[in-house]
Amino acid sequence: MAIPRMKKRPRPLLLLALTLALAAVSLVLFGILFFSAASSLPTLGSLLFSSPAHWSASGGGGGGGGGGLYGLERRYLYWGHRIDCPGKHCESCAGLGHQESSLRCALEEALFLQRVFVMPSRMCISSIHNKKGILHSPSDASSEERWEASSCAMDSLYDLNLISKVVPVILDNSNLWHQILSTSMKLGKRGVAHVEGVNRSDLKENSMYSNVLLINRTASPLAWFMECKDRTNHSSILLSHSLLPTMAAERLQNVADKIKKSLGDYDAIHVRRGDRLKTRKDRFGVDRSRHPHLDRDTRPEFIHRRIAKWIPPGRSLFIASDERTPGFFSPLSAWYKLAYSSNFSSILDPVIENNYQLFMVERLIMGGAKTFVKTFKEDENDLFLTDDPKKNPKNWQMPVYTDEEDGS
Fold first, then answer.
1. N or C: which end of the chain has fewer CB within 10 A?
2. What is the CATH number of domain 250-407?
3. pLDDT below 50 — which residues of the chain?
4. What is the 3-state secondary structure of the chain?
């Protein structure tokens, strides 16, 4: 008698074993994916103690991408959502030069404290200094709407990734900044320090400030740059005046490069007139000026006398100026081949939206000249048109228009 075969009972056990194995593998894969995603988020610990490599990979620099800390700890410095505000310039608006001085001052402090600077996402545009693309807003617009209409995006002026190679920055409208604010509130005393009237050395050395995630600085109500009033002490200067002019946004750099290529071998002068020629009458009704020789020294005949020793005749001369009188510099064409930014409207018009952008392009062009002559002397090796000091706030003198007056 044949022994009957037993039915194969183990099959359900085998299926169960396979199911459990697959479930285990799925759990492992899920865990790997979960912790990988979690590790990319800025946790409390990573915000305070993350390494430069992790900071760069998570997109902490350059306004939200790229950059890198280059060895700095990941802590933050905030001066306010508008340059020179809080203070007297919250409603008014200074020119580009003044705002750059203030911005450079804030960046210097961030560099000194080894912190990431939280940069305002927009820059105010002064109507006095902007004749291109005048911005209008309805009379019933809110203050925020008026601010939007009278300002431009910071990254339309500057390459934030370039700046972050010197001083790491993020914008105050970035997701990372909102995460920092949220985290700072959870950390209590270690989260944020609100400071006013504290010098930068104390901010660096006093653990009450140095160990917090975020320093919220209230700068001088006069202007941010007043916090750097010790710039006369050259050993205290961490960032040069030339930093921001060389950090123009990529599309502005591209426009400047095209114009420089078109100019070929050229020289350049910057002629500051405009508001610098302001006069006022004294109690006897006599006109007085803070720059008594400037009007004379920036007229074509006197410009030629000054620059002839540096720029030979026949050269291409690029002129950047705030002088609005048509043909004002035409007499210089007797000696030079003149060029202005207006000669390159086909290159500029598709890109330039305001005079701040235009001046940034002009600065790049002037920086590429073989010989560059400024209006005022700013540094020791500068060539300049007038001997009047650039900063002369109190001494109002009678304007001088001729050599004879100067010699009397």
1. N
2. 3.40.50
3. 1-20, 23, 25, 27-60, 64-73, 133-138, 407-408
4. CCCCCCCCCHHHHHHHHHHHHHHHHHHHHHHHHHHHHHHCCCCHHHHHHCCHHHHHHCCCCCCCCCCCCCCCCCCEEECCCECCECCCCCCCCCCHHHHHHHHHHHHHHHHHHCCEEEECCEEECCHHHCCCCCCCCCCCCCHHHHHHHCEEEHHHCECHHHHHCCCCEEECCCHHHHHHHHHHHHCHHHCEEEEECCCHHHHHHCHHHHCCCEEEEECCCCCHHHHHHHHHCHHHCCCCCCCHHHHECHHHHHHHHHHHHHHCCEEEEEECCHHHHCEEECCCCCEEECCCCHHHHCCHHHHHHHHCCCCCCCCEEEEEECCCCCCCCHHHHHCCEEECHHHHHHHHCCCCCCHHHHHHHHHHHHHCCCCEEECCCCCCCCEECCCCCCCCCCCCECCCCCHHHHHC
168 near 114, Cβ under 8 Å?
Answer: no
Yes or no: say if 98 and 223 are a contact pair by the CB < 8 Å rule: yes
**Are 301 and 154 contacting, i.e. CB atoms less than 8 angstroms apart?**
no
Alpha carbons 69 and 91: distance in angstroms, whole number: 34
pLDDT at 143: 57
In tens, the pLDDT along 298-345 reads 999 999 999 999 999 999 999 999 999 999 999 999 999 999 999 999
Please state, in angstroms and rounded to a whole number, the distance separating the CA atoms of residues 87 and 224: 9
Q: What pLDDT, on a 0 to 100 scale, did the predictor assign at position 267?
A: 98
Q: What is the pLDDT of residue 63?
A: 55
* Type of residue at 288: R
Instruction: Single out the residue of 290, 269, 282 nearest to residue 362, CA to CA.
Output: 269
Q: Which residues pair with 170 in a beta bridge?
A: 118
What are the structural domain ranges in the chain?
A: 44-247, 250-407
pLDDT at 408 (0 to 100): 40
What is the per-residue pLDDT for 236? 61
